[in-house]
């Protein structure tokens, strides 16, 4: 089974990114220091960095049933950010989201994350997780609204390269268990 390359929600369109999206992704969110502060990937310094993300996205879509999605406003088509699923195997995936500053505070992250949870259910995933900086309260609230809980047993070092390069930061893993692991 392969995910649709386009998903529509009440207010959003989620689409697999293509090469032609490079300039918009770079300008709207990937190069913004405020937007990328708590992300696990380095802020893009040039459109070439963004093209690297797009090449990675294409390879994820070739290797797995889904990959990254760009988030657009359904009413205008304006690029708002990105989300997606990163498969860690056939039954588990990681997810996340990033939104341009002018898209903050409108419930778009929650709506996009719920679409990723619905997609995860369609693939009969057992678990979906997301790593969040300990100080990123808005992101923690989004995860909790969508049914994710903090994995209290998780204790891996996390580097958030836009906070302090090469320094381990306080990070939490949130998880959503969708079904019990198969026995055997």
Structure notes:
There is one protein chain. Helices cover 29% and strands 27% of the residues. The chain is of the alpha+beta class and 184 residues long. It has a single domain (6-177), classed as 3-Layer(aba) Sandwich (Aminopeptidase). The strands form two sheets. An eight-stranded mixed sheet has the order 1-2-3-4-5-6-10-7, with helices on both faces. Strands 8-9 form a two-stranded antiparallel ribbon. It is globular and about 40 Å long. The protein starts with 5 loop residues before the first strand and ends in a 7-residue tail after the last strand.
Summarize the structure.
The chain has helices at residues 22-30, 33-36, 47-63, 108-122, 137-145; strands at residues 6-8, 12-15, 68-73, 79-87, 92-99, 127-133, 149-150, 158-159, 168-169, 171-177.
Lay out the secondary structure.
Layout: E1 6-8, E2 12-15, H1 22-30, H2 33-36, H3 47-63, E3 68-73, E4 79-87, E5 92-99, H4 108-122, E6 127-133, H5 137-145, E7 149-150, E8 158-159, E9 168-169, E10 171-177
Parallel strand pairs: 5-6
Antiparallel strand pairs: 1-2, 2-3, 3-4, 4-5, 6-10, 7-10, 8-9
Helix pairs in contact: 1-3
């Amino acid at each position: 089974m392969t995910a649709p390359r386009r998903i529509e929600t009440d207010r959003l369109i989620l689409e697999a990114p293509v090469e032609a999206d490079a300039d918009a992704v770079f300008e709207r969110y990937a190069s913004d220091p405020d937007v990328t502060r708590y992300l696990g990937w380095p802020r893009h310094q040039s459109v070439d960095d963004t093209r690297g993300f797009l090449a990675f996205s294409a390879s994820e879509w070739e290797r797995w049933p889904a990959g990254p999605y760009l988030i657009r406003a359904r009413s205008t088509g304006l690029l708002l950010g990105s989300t997606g699923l990163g498969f860690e195997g056939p039954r588990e995936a990681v997810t996340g989201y990033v939104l341009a500053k002018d898209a903050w505070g409108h419930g778009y992250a929650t709506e996009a994350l719920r679409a990723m949870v619905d997609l995860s259910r369609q693939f009969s995933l057992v678990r979906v997780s997301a790593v969040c900086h300990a100080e990123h309260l808005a992101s923690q609230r989004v995860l909790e609204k969508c049914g994710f809980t903090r994995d209290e047993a998780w204790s891996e070092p996390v580097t958030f390269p836009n906070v302090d390069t090469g320094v381990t930061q306080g990070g939490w893993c949130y998880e959503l268990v969708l079904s019990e692991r198969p026995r055997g």
